[in-house]
Amino acid sequence: MTATATRFPIDLGAYQPLKLDPANPKLSDEQRKTLQANIQLCRDTIVFFTATGGARGVGGHTGGAYDTVPEVMILDAFFRGKADQFVPIFFDEAGHRVATQYLMASIYGELPAEKLVQYRAAGSTLPGHPELGLTPGIKFSSGRLGHMWPFVNGIALANPGKTVFCLGSDGAQQEGDDAEAARLAVAQHINIKLLIDDNDVTIAGHPSQYLPGFSVSRTLEGHGLTVLEGDGEDLDGLYARICQAVDTPGPVAVVNKRSMAVGIEGVEGTTHGHDVIPVKSAIQYLESRGQAAAADFLKGIEKPKQTYTFMGSSDKVGSNRNVFGEVMVEILGEMSERDRKNKVLVVDNDLEGSCGLKQIHDAFPEIFISGGIQERGNLSAAAGFGMEEGKQGVYATFSAFLEMSISEITMARLNKVNLLCHFSHSGIDDMADNTCHFGINNMFADGGLDDSYPNSLYFPADANQMRACVKAVFNDPGLRFIFSTRSKVPMVLDESGNEMFGGDYTFTPGKDEVIREGKAGYIVSFGSALYRAIDAVERLKQEGIEVGLINKSTLNAVDEDSMAKVGAAPFVLVVEEFNRRTGLGSRFGSLLLERGLTPKYAHLGTHEEGSGGLWEQFPHQGLDPESIMKKVKQLMK
After folding, report:
1. In terms of pTM, does the model score above 0.85?
2. CA 202 to CA 63: how far, in whole Å?
3. What secondary structure letter does DSSP report for 117?
4. Per-residue model confidence (pLDDT) at position 481
5. Could you give the C-alpha distances from 556 to 50, 84, 394, 553, 561, in angstroms and in order?
6. Which of 216, 405, 605, 610 could form a disulfide with 434 if both were Cys (CB 3.0 to 4.6 A apart)?
7. What is the mean pLDDT of residues 516-530?
8. Which of 423, 371, 24 minimizes the C-alpha distance to 176?
9. Helix, strand or coil for residue 478?
10. What is the DSSP letter of 18?
């Protein structure tokens, strides 16, 4: 089914534009009826088109956007009724609620409704977080929690005399950035109104359980904001509180209590509501709402499959991010209970299911902390635990958030701590969330000096090497960063077709692995770019071009033997999914020159904003086997 050939199965023409004046805090019966109809129409639509992403396997987020529809409908009516009084943008801290932005762009006629069914698909320009300049009708970029309120403070300062709204969440409010934004808003009397969806659900659990004592309302009151708390599903009460917020000078937080995904059977109130609604649940919901055409549309979607067959790697795939947790459980299980509790502390950032930490949580809850969405403070807590000799902290989150913690990493290094970090979702593979969630600046973690405390970066090539790597470096001193992809990756095979890192393989930190020997030149790669590079090497060999391949699984150590080997070759090509400006390739040429080695040199890496989709990100960046082969042939001229 294509957006251009298929009629959108929900009639968005039924949307009734409404004008409201916040000076009148009481809804008439007709206004309430119109709002209720718009709310239901938009909630049905969000369930439908986000579920198309789930049906195609690109995921998405339903619950947050679904939750905040009442607030958005009220804001839309304000923007239409008193345009000169507001900055008419639905700023949202939670970029994963992007369905709101796409829906409103469609209602305003800036985005064809038919395009919504390509939600998060490759090349659709509808990625999993809003990106300014990419999608028609999108007026800001968002995606990393805690970043939007501080930004919108500036928007308000740039628009004196106007009211600016920012949609927030209880998850975003856990971030330290929001505390700083609150203090500035109060001190400068910034006319910003926070509409906070307080549904007590984040990715991994319920804030009331893993952060007992934390209250969004009391925290904001402590910063000095006026806080108006109430039931987000009580339309009259919600409207009155938003009107009061507009009428109150300075910063105001309207905190809206509600159950996540209210009214969706089997999803309401659960953590499943945070992500994309299951297709089965969406169909059941839509049919109950009389949206049979939309339900039938979902039934007809087929999940696209990658049909390319990669040479040099197995059909069997493994999830490195989950293998990290499996191996950690094995290692911790070999310790006595007393040693485990005394020597190890594991700190999660609301991503335990995505980073492999859930397995540790389930097996050894006594050493596990659900730290919430507080990347900076949690890293420092884990690091502080590991300051004493014989102890170590373990920490995990997405690689995109490594950038948020560079200063904490520096302080951990200066305090000579023992800290094992797992940053999953590295690179770009399977990243429909798109650019803001790319983990491409991981080399920032290598910010120490030549004489600093040990600081090592590892990127295992497959599940076998991940297992060997974790076992090898678990007891090492210093900071250790282990990276993994969101995607599952195949097992690397040797030239005989055997698993290269299986059997009795032992991981040696700092040592590069020769995957294939070659006379024409060498490719240096790692991560999920490696098996694509193997395929390119194998296909080049079929053309009579013998190119070698090096797996640089320790990213920030120089293997002199390996450098001498590749440096003596006619060319060296670094292929990586990290940022071309900051990745391995940006420094590898200098390492060669420092040793008097002068092969032809080039490097391929992520250099453009994303295109959505999953594996499609690689050809979009020119990192697929065909692109690698083309670059090799250019270097050989």
Report:
1. yes
2. 10
3. G
4. 98
5. 40, 54, 20, 9, 15
6. 610
7. 98
8. 371
9. coil
10. -
Q: Are 456 and 480 in contact (CB under 8 A)?
A: yes
Whether residue 534 contacts residue 549, with contact meaning beta carbons closer than 8 Å, is answered with yes
pLDDT at 589 over 70: yes
Is residue 469 over pLDDT 90? yes
Residue pLDDT, tens place only, 371-430: 999 999 999 999 999 999 999 999 999 999 999 999 999 999 999 999 999 999 999 999
Determine the Cα–Cα distance for residues 54 and 276; give it in Å rounded to an integer.
6
pLDDT score recorded for residue 315:
94
β pairing state of 547-551 and 513-516: antiparallel
Edge-to-edge order in the sheet of strand 600-606: 513-516, 547-551, 521-525, 571-579, 600-606
Burial of 312 (0-12, 13-18, 19+ CB in 10 A): buried
Cα separation of 369 and 390, whole Å?
A: 20
Listed in sequence order, the residues at least 6 apart from 382 whose beta carbon sits closer than 8 Å to its beta carbon are 345, 346, 347, 393, 394, 395, 419
326 class by beta-carbon count within 10 Å (0-12 exposed, 13-18 middle, 19+ buried): middle
- Pull the structure tokens for residue 465: 């090497």
Statement: residue 4 has pLDDT above 70: no
CA 622 – CA 603 distance, rounded (Å): 11
Cα–Cα dist 360/373, whole Å:
19
pLDDT grade, residue 451 (50/70/90)? confident
Chain centroid to CA 424: 10
CB-count exposure of residue 544 (10 Å: 0-12, 13-18, 19+): exposed
Mean pLDDT value across the chain: 96
Contact predicate 393/385, CB 8 Å: yes
The residues, ordered by sequence, that sit 6+ positions from 289 with a Cβ below 8 Å of its Cβ are: 40, 44
Distance of CA 116 to CAs 7, 211, 613, Å?
A: 11, 36, 14
What H or E segment, with its residue span, contains residue 392? Answer: strand 392-398
Are the CB atoms for 247 and 23 separated by under 8 Å? Answer: yes
Tell me the pLDDT tens digit for each residue of 310-343: 999 999 999 999 999 999 999 999 999 999 999 9
CB 123 within 8 A of CB 612: yes
Residues comprising the chain, all counted: 637
User: If you write DSSP's letter for every residue of 480-513 in order, what string do you get?
Assistant: EEEE--SS-EEEEB-TTSSBTT-TT----TT--E
Tell how far CA 212 is from the center of its chain. 26
What's the pLDDT tens digit per position in 180-197? 999 999 999 999 999 999
